[in-house]
Design brief:
The complex is a heterodimer of chains A (110) and B (217). Chain A is α/β, with parallel strands linked by helices and 110 residues long. Helix content of chain A is 43%, strand content 23%. In chain B, strand 1 and strand 2 form a beta hairpin. Classes of the chains: A alpha/beta (110), B mainly alpha (217).
């Protein structure tokens, strides 16, 4: 079943500008609440396949993200902002490993 | 371990034995499934980690470069230059089946083979161009990351759910059934012994009466 979906980027207004010319839809949000409203609207729409959200905002809305984790679409993926990564995305992977295996087997080397 | 509230009859015993057989079989199957899922998950998650590390670094660099370029350009000009993208990105979404769960499979497609830099170069700096080209290039790999990360998320969820099932079978269902079967067997044996004893007793009473009757004659 092949369908086409849209890509969106949520982040602070400056950061989002950079993605604008890549042809994706961009939404500026300065805090978690604004991002929450946008995300909710997007999931209701159902047109979006992938939503990238900058880490500094993703940190503020873990509940919404964990709800969205359970469905196939949209895939909400944290990306680093212009200030660099704050480790939220990596923490997500770590959490997955802990959930699946019961212990952190991937990151304990460092 | 608590045993089930059932009547100790042969019919019940047969039924429970059947259930135990199914439970043991199911337990084995689920355990095998769990093993395989974890194996696949580890592959995915390793890839995920590597991809994320690379992308995080590259994207942070690109965004940083973009920020610098933006700083030296007039804000109005930047917005004007970027607001009308020459290309439109879309993803083709499908569903892949990994171990019985539907995970997304994504591939990017750019509509209209337009220009990545849809603005005049007069108002913006060259750094801006490179930063934007880099980000556009990264889009493909970002989607790859999205696909893998989502797969990992869903696999992790499924593995956890599966583990619950395995544990429920291993530590609740199977001991309960074995316990109950044992109980019924004991009860049935006990009944049998009771019947034998009763028969022996009856026989001895009858023999005694017959002996007394013979004496009277």
């Amino acid at each position: 079943m092949i369908k086409s979906g849209k890509i969106a980027v949520i982040g602070d207004r400056d950061c989002v500008l950079a993605f604008m010319s890549a042809g994706v839809e961009t939404y500026g949000a300065s805090n978690g609440e604004e991002a929450n409203v946008i995300l909710r609207k997007m999931t209701k729409d159902g047109d979006y396949a992938v939503i990238f959200i900058t880490e500094d905002i993703a940190v503020q809305i873990p509940e919404t993200l964990s709800v969205l984790k359970k469905q196939t679409y949209p895939a909400v993926i944290p990306i680093p902002s212009s200030q660099g990564s704050n480790g939220f995305g990596m923490a997500g992977i770590k959490k997955d490993v802990e959930k699946a295996v019961g212990a952190d087997v991937l990151f304990n080397k460092d | 371990m608590a045993r089930l509230a059932v009547n100790p009859t042969r019919m019940e015993l047969r039924r429970l034995k059947e259930r135990l057989k199914t439970a043991v079989r199911g337990h084995k199957l689920l355990k095998d499934k769990s093993d395989e899922m974890i194996r696949q998950f580890m592959n995915f998650v390793r890839e995920n980690k590597q991809l994320r590390e690379e992308i995080e670094q590259e994207l942070a660099e690109a965004l940083h470069a973009f920020m610098l370029a933006k700083a030296v350009t007039d804000k109005q000009d930047v917005v004007e230059a970027l607001s009308l993208p020459g290309i439109e990105a879309e993803v083709e979404t499908g569903e892949k089946n990994v171990m019985g769960i539907d995970v997304p499979s994504l591939s990017i497609r750019f509509k209209e083979g337009g220009d990545f830099l849809p603005y005049s170069f007069a108002a913006t700096s060259a750094d801006m161009d490179t930063a934007i080209l880099k980000i556009s290039e990264l889009m493909k790999r970002l989607l790859q990351l999205a696909e893998i990360e989502k797969t990992c998320n869903m696999l992790a969820d499924e593995i956890e759910r599966n583990r619950r099932r395995v544990n429920a079978l291993e530590y609740v269902m199977i001991p309960q059934l074995t316990e109950t079967i044992k109980y019924i067997l004991m009860k049935l044996d006990e009944n049998e012994r009771a019947t034998t004893i009763r028969l022996m007793k009856v026989k001895s009473i009858i023999e005694k009466q017959e002996a007394e009757a013979a004496e009277k004659k």
